[in-house]
Design brief:
binds zinc ion; alpha/beta; 4 helices; globular; six-stranded mixed β-sheet; Metallo-beta-lactamase, Chain A; about 160 residues; single chain
């Protein structure tokens, strides 16, 4: 299983704009490896965990192969509907994207101003609700959502190759 970390900061990246904690202060001062993008992981080429405002996903959604996005929570830093909207709107691919997360995830486009919402974009998205401790097959993987030590319905994922 090939895992690529696209960002290892907080969901908002590090430093957080208005934060004066020691981690953010050092990251702001030193930059470089201390300044990190929002936390996101790509597994193989088809499986993205969390879509942050920092993600460039045009390559991810291009082409006709099936793609999956898992969101650890519905917070817009973890599933940034505007980034998805912009990337899909600019893509010539017509395939659909399967998106997995908690029950509130399919309301994510409420965050996108109506003037920016494009109907065809929503038609390309298929939302699936994950239930804690229940394994589901997603592509070539078995995914089990587990509760995160975070707020609301945040999840972490156990990901295994499907038998
Ligand atoms: Zn901070």
């Amino acid at each position: 299983m090939r895992i690529q970390y696209l960002g290892t900061g907080t969901a908002k990246g590090t430093p957080v704009a208005s934060c004066s904690c020691s981690v953010c202060s050092i990251a702001r001062e030193k930059g470089g490896k201390d300044a990190r993008k929002g936390c996101s992981v790509l597994i193989e080429d088809d499986f993205l965990i969390d879509l942050t405002p920092h993600n460039q996903i045009s390559d991810f959604i291009a082409g006709s192969e099936q793609r999956y996005i898992l969101a650890t929570t519905t917070g817009h830093e973890h599933f940034h509907a505007q980034t998805l909207q912009a990337s899909l709107g600019a893509s010539s691919s017509s395939g659909h994207l399967d998106i997995y997360g908690d029950a509130g995830l399919n309301n994510c486009f409420i965050q996108v101003p109506p003037s920016e919402q494009k109907k065809y974009v929503k038609e390309r998205l298929v939302f699936h609700t994950l239930n804690l401790f229940k394994s589901v097959r997603i592509g070539m993987y078995m995914v089990t959502a587990l509760p995160a030590r975070h707020f609301r319905t945040a999840m972490v994922f156990l990901i295994e190759h499907a038998p």
